[in-house]
Amino acid sequence: MMRTLLLAMAVLGVATAVAIGSYTALAGSNPVGDVAGVVIGHELTHAFDDQGRQFDAQGNLNNWWSAADERSFNARASLIEKQFDDYIVIDAIHTNGKQTRGENIADLGGVKIAYLAFQKSLEGKPLPTNADGFTTDQRFFIAYAQVWRAVARPEAIRILAVTDTHAFPRFRAIGPLANLPEFAGAFACQPGDPAIRPERLRVQIW
């Protein structure tokens, strides 16, 4: 049942993102607009994570996961916990992988759905030409990363690192992309490159 629901989520995310025109042949020209589908996908993903599972299709407080669903989810989610635990935010303070797990999973789901929407928007059209030396796929991922540009004082960073349920912005940029073979392919990453995780450690939730 979960597989069917996740497929429905992906279809809805793709359809919505394409419908609002977030993805065009000019992907990358407007980072905020181009990755609007990431936000849509992120929030849709929350409906199917360890929070969304608490509410059924009628919105009632009712856990609709099977025991097998829960075991599978937790096994996969443990990988993203470990991934973010390794990120040093500032000084010797690491990201709290358990505390940020739900948002990190949603970020990963969001960019995956957005990329599917992006590819869907290009179907039946001539492949856009490169711009500024970057391919269309490269510009999509650059646009995604640019959304997370942020500046904060060290004092604020330290507080956020231990209180926020979201990872610090730079890790919301590099963390999900490190798990995507599409990103690795777009930039011709090779095994051992720091921008990508080894295949055995890549997180695949949905």
Q: Key features?
A:
9 helices; 2% strand; globular; mainly alpha; 2 strands; 53% helix; single chain; 206 residues; two-stranded antiparallel sheet; Collagenase (Catalytic Domain)
How would you describe this structure to a colleague?
This protein is mainly α and 206 residues long. The protein has a single domain (2-62, 69-201), classed as Collagenase (Catalytic Domain). Helices cover 53% and strands 2% of the residues. Strands 1-2 form a two-stranded antiparallel sheet. Strand 1 (88-90) and strand 2 (93-94) form a beta hairpin. Helix 1 (2-19) runs antiparallel to helix 3 (36-46). The longest helix is centred in the middle third of the chain and has 21 residues, at 101-121. Mean pLDDT is 85; it is low at 15-29.
**Beta-strand share of residues:** under 5%
Q: Biggest sheet, strands in spatial order?
A: 1-2
CATH homolog superfamily: Collagenase (Catalytic Domain)
Unreliable spans are 15-29
Class by helix and strand content? mainly alpha
Number of helices: 9
CATH architecture: 3-Layer(aba) Sandwich
Taking the sheet with the most strands, its summary is: 2 strands, antiparallel
Q: Tell me the quaternary state.
A: single chain
The CATH class assignment is Alpha Beta
Which geometry do the CA atoms define?
globular
Short description:
By secondary structure, the chain is mainly α. Helices cover 53% and strands 2% of the residues.
List strands and helices in order, with pairings.
Elements (H helix, E strand, L loop, with lengths): L1 H18 L11 H4 L1 H11 L20 H19 L2 E3 L2 E2 L6 H21 L14 H12 L6 H10 L5 H9 L3 H6 L20
Antiparallel strand pairs: 1-2
Helix pairs in contact: 1-3, 1-5, 3-5, 5-8, 6-8
